[in-house]
Design a protein that fits this description.
The structure is a single chain. The protein is of the alpha/beta class. The chain folds into two domains: 186 residues, Glutaconate Coenzyme A-transferase (3-Layer(aba) Sandwich), CATH 3.40.1080; 233 residues, Acetyl-CoA hydrolase/transferase C-terminal domain (Glutaconate Coenzyme A-transferase, 3-Layer(aba) Sandwich), CATH 3.40.1080. Helix 4 links the parallel strand 2 and strand 3. Helix 8 packs across helix 9. Helices cover 31% and strands 20% of the residues. The chain is globular. It contains 16 helices and 26 strands. The longest helix is centred in the first third of the chain and has 13 residues. Keywords: Transferase. Belongs to the acetyl-CoA hydrolase/transferase family. GO terms for molecular function: acetate CoA-transferase activity. Its EC number is 2.8.3.-.
């Protein structure tokens, strides 16, 4: 037995035993998305339900059903307090129920994605990491697989690193490994990874996807956000050539472009020949594609999302969706109906990185309306916080066209954005712009 195998055996224990290593008062970083460890989280939830542990704060982005059915159950939030850095459906339900009962159901921590490792390790001082990893290799390393993001940084500073080893987690290359000597406890649990398929596109998505694809030159490097709209852009790019990828999220749409030979990474000025990402979500086919694929590298989010690093890719194109754009060009991409809906994520990181790139383009896209056409997404004033400031917004696209806001005056911006609004809202937006002094009366 090798020294690494001995260390592995010494750290191996049941989920219940591993959960006892997390004391009351701990600050736990839970892995993002697919890497949330089912067996460990269930064991921790069981301890909380038995009132064997209390006063634990859990920090994370992008929860899934894995967490929602265990540590993020509402009845446990008095002992396991969810601290979300990126809301989803689970957090929205926790918040709504908390409001009904007059107490806090979830705590939101505003931060940009690139800053997350620093926020967790320095400002908050998390002391525990729980994550799913691939099986150990011959050198004693576990790959973080689908989720390097903030997990790598936390693994290097936390007092307790508790890992769930899952043979279904792909082994990925790059700066994305945790050595067995850094690990406090190991749990073995074979379970299929959570899958997230592509959302069905609406007609507006297909129109917007075609418009955006028409703006992207061959040889460009891409970042795509999540959802039906970015997927529609990927669908519209299959006639392009020699594209590259530098993205926080690797999606099935981007993987399909690699499989089709549209993405070669040959023209990338940074990490040529490699697709760079910090986390991935997709179907089983996506995870199989990641496994030991030398064409991909996973790196920490404070590198992948660093605007200065992003800008080193010539012809960098970022494509992100938003919920609202005001007539000045500022975007709110995280707030809806007076409540936190998602979070800023890495949108501003890539807006600024792509804008600073030689020949780069930052693209913000949205449907012109919401609520089945009853509400305009182009508005005079935002209903929530600014995710992308007006000074940073470059190209805006709706199903009614696109405009580059750079260099336009306030009145030119207002007129151009009104032109991207649904026709039934344009007259009212003109009136609001005149009342605000943006357009001369």
């Amino acid at each position: 037995m090798t020294d690494y195998a001995i260390q592995y055996a010494e750290r191996l224990m049941s989920p219940a035993a591993a959960a006892t290593l997390i004391p009351s008062g701990a600050k736990v970083a839970m892995a993002l998305g697919v890497a949330q460890p089912p067996a460990l989280l269930k064991a921790l939830a069981d301890r909380a339900e038995a009132k064997a542990v209390d006063d634990i704060n859990i920090y994370y982005l992008l929860s899934t059903a894995i967490a929602g059915e265990t540590v993020l159950r509402y009845e446990l939030t008095d002992r396991l307090r969810p601290h979300s850095l990126f809301h989803g459906a689970i957090e929205r339900k926790l918040e709504a129920r908390g409001i009904e009962e007059g107490r806090q159901g979830v705590w939101f921590v505003p931060t940009g994605f690139q800053q997350t490792p620093k926020v967790l390790t320095r400002e908050i001082g998390v002391d525990t990491l729980v994550a799913t990893v691939s099986p150990m290799d011959a050198d004693g390393n576990f790959s973080l697989g689908t989720n390097t993001d903030y997990a790598l940084a936390v693994s290097r500073t936390a007092k307790r690193v508790i890992l769930e080893v899952n043979p279904h987690m792909p082994r990925v290359f790059g700066e994305c490994t945790v050595h067995v000597s850094q690990v406090t406890a190991l749990v073995e649990h074979a379970a299929p990874l959570l899958e997230a398929g592509k959302a069905a596109p609406q007609p507006q998505d297909l129109i917007i996807g075609g418009l955006i694809a028409g703006l992207i030159e061959n040889g460009s490097t891409l970042q795509m956000g999540i959802g039906a709209l970015p997927d529609a852009v990927c669908e519209a790019l299959h006639d392009h050539a020699d594209l590259g990828i530098h993205t926080e999220l690797l999606t099935p749409g981007l993987v399909e472009l690699m499989r089709a030979g549209v993405v070669t990474n040959a023209k990338k000025s940074l990490h040529p020949g490699k697709t760079l990402f910090t986390f991935a979500m997709g179907d089983r086919s996506t995870y199989d594609f990641l496994h030991e694929n030398p064409a991909l590298e996973a790196r920490p989010v404070d590198y992948v999302n660093d605007p200065a690093v992003i800008a080193r890719n010539d012809k960098m194109v970022s494509v992100n969706a938003t919920l609202q754009i005001d007539l000045f060009g500022a975007c709110c991409s995280e707030y809806l109906n007076g409540r936190q809906y998602t979070a800023s994520g890495g949108q501003l990181d890539f807006v600024r990185g792509a804008s600073a790139s030689q020949g780069g383009q930052s693209i913000i896209a949205c449907h012109s309306t919401a609520a089945k056409g009853a509400v305009s997404r182009i508005v005079a004033r935002l209903d929530g916080p600014v995710t992308t400031p007006r000074n940073d917004t470059q190209i805006v696209v709706t199903e009614h066209g696109w405009v580059n806001l750079r260099g336009l005056t306030v009145d030119q911006r207002a007129r151009a954005l009104i032109g991207l609004a649904a026709p039934q809202f344009r007259e009212g937006l003109h009136a609001e712009a005149r009342a605000m002094g943006m357009i001369p009366a």
